Amino acid sequence: MSVSLEGAVDVHVHTAPDLVERYAFDLDLAREARDAGMRGLVVKSHVVPTVGRVDQVNRALGEDLLYGGVALNAGTGGLNPEAVRIALELGGRIVWLPTAWSANHARQERRAGADSFVGQRLPGPDEELVVARDGSLLEETSEIVDLVAEYGAVLGTGHVGAEEVEAVVAACADRGADVLVNHPFFRATELSIATQESLAEQGATMEYCAYAVDSTEGHSVERVAEAVARVGPERCLLATDYGQVGNSPVDGLAAFARRVVDAGVPASTVRELVRDRPVELFGL
Fold first, then answer.
1. What's a Pfam family in this record (predicted)?
2. How far apart are CA 145 and CA 226, in angstroms?
3. If one looks up domain 9-282 in CATH, what number appears?
């Protein structure tokens, strides 16, 4: 059964320009989404802020369709509250905690023999970033959470480890900041469904991505369906994490939604997961 993309939002897409080849540039993808009737796309880059550049596209289109933010890797100074403040002041909707430069992800990649991730140099052991230790946020992370709460934005957990995610979610719950647990089934950020339930009970939203299903051994849309049932659709959304060459976020979101319906989630619920939940979370 197909699910309409009318009014849908994909909160996790990658576009050109980037350090690796991408499916489309911002403007071309925005036009594709508009033609499909989508409400919006949240553009993510691991290396540069996307806030600002999306404004150029929206001005060219004559409507607000793309939304941006900042990922806290090497290109933005890591856990850099001033970079966060500037991005949010410029209208950024989301701040992603470190991805490839997180200690959690960097160590996994180095163990696998990699020295880069989607074109970005991986940090050495003395450069990798942690956001919490022994259950407590670092001072910089704490300031970032406060900024996200102050500006009414969303904090994405990026690729940090499970214990760090738990500390971040607890802090966000305490300070009234919205938090999105990025692809909790992705190979680098795997969380048990029980852990996801606990995080959702504290107010976090789970982001289930098509790319995680594609790229993570043992993952499946059936696991997504089980998680939605256990976590509760009011604390879940669907996204793609697409933008790789050959992976259209627009076509991909439609296909992913259809697969989740086929896995047993009611079409009406899937419609909420691609439209209502992201619109509510991002205040669109």
1. DUF6282
2. 30
3. 3.20.20.140
Number of H helices, E strands in the chain: 12, 13
CB 183 within 8 A of CB 13: no
DSSP for 155-184? EE-TT--HHHHHHHHHHHHHHT-EEEE--T
Side-chain-facing half-sphere of 139: CA atoms under 13 Å: 0
Whether the full predicted model's pTM is greater than 0.85, yes or no, is yes
Q: Contact 120/19 with Cβ under 8 angstroms?
A: yes
- Interatomic CA distance for residues 25 and 57, integer angstroms: 10
Q: Which two tokens stand for residue 99?
A: 């991805």
Helix (H, G, I), strand (E, B) or coil at 36: coil
Express each pLDDT in 72-108 by its tens digit: 999 999 999 999 999 999 999 999 999 999 999 999 9
pLDDT tens digits for range 12-54: 999 999 999 999 999 999 999 999 999 999 999 999 999 999 9
CA 169, CA 152: separation in Å to the nearest integer? 16
The answer to whether 205 touches 177, Cβ cutoff 8 Å, is no
* 70 and 84 Cβ atoms separated by less than 8 Å: yes
